[in-house]
Specification:
Distance between the termini: 27 Å
Order of helices and strands: EHEEEEHEHEHEEEEHEEEEHHEEHH
Pfam family, one: ATPgrasp_YheCD
CATH topology of the largest domain: Rossmann fold
CATH architecture of the largest domain: 3-Layer(aba) Sandwich
Structural class: alpha+beta
GO molecular function: ATP binding
Strand order of the largest sheet: 4-3-2-1-5-6
Protein name: YheC/YheD family protein
CATH class of the largest domain: Alpha Beta
Shape: globular
Helix content: 25-40%
Strand content: 25-35%
Amino acid sequence: MLTLGFMTLLLENEHTYFTEIAKRAHKYNIECFRFIPSSMDPTTEMFEGEYFSHQQDRWVKKRFPLPDVLYDRCFYGEDFHSRQCKGIVSWLKSKDNVRFLGYGLPNKLELYEVLSNSNLSAYLPKTVKVTSPQMIHSLLQTFQRIILKPSNGSQGNGVYYIERHNKHFIVKTDKLDQQVSRVFADETLLLNWLERLLKKKEFMLQPYLSLTNEHHEPFDIRSLLQKNRNGHWITVGKGIRQGKEERIVSNLSAGATVIDYEKWIQSIPQQKRNFIKDEIKFILESLPRLLEEKFHPLFELGVDIGVAKDYSIWILDVNSKPGRKVLLTSQPDLQDYLYESPLLYAKAIMERSILDHEETVFD
């Protein structure tokens, strides 16, 4: 029986997602496990975790060897546990005999460097690595309004909007259910605050783009791309994430709502509608090929695309560990496909591995 392992930093992370996959696994003759990378016994390379029992319809504690195929769903922070797990996962990904559904992407700055030298460069907001508070202050003289994003961030966490207004500066960031705003009376106070902020993590800077609707609500198009069992990339679906009025980000974790993509696109004037659809199609068809030419093989991508008031199109984020809430909300008929696609691709990986082994033996 094929074994599929979900790797996560806490066993209960993405509980519903893993459980729905595991409930469907038996019809594909697959057994599912979930575990934390740091639970590995280095002497035996055995893991402490849980397997899904179909008889009991629940997760049960178990000690087990490394599963045949691994699904990396680890979201790292700056803490010791994250660094420890990240090291173990990197080690596993370096081993030729370990199989992953997908190998992930580097941080946003490395990703930007690759895409900025491709035929998708025109769709990228200008992005630079932040090297000092003085650099941010200098660029504020040019752009007036900027966005700071963590190079390794996710879910819109730690994103700051900074605006220069005469001699004072306005800083805003979105929390779970509110926006926090602060005014610095002069550049010295701003620079002192930036100094403390930059000690916590690495940031990148972009000019602020007004990607809002007529109600001043930020919105973007989330597309989910995945490989099918034949290894071909397909666009599984699209949805609109619409943030709260005057907010910075449109992430669901910051209180955004989901809108049906087809209803939204039909509200656009015909000529502009065709332009947007063609541009998005070009981006989604180009991205996977470009990324797999430069990085390790992938299984899925979440692509966030912004549409400005002048209908210019912008690639806002590319994520190799996307969520599914947007599609489950806007297209609930995709539910079975979303939960079964990792199983189908895991089987395909294993079948290709066996075939490659047989060809090597008979060479």
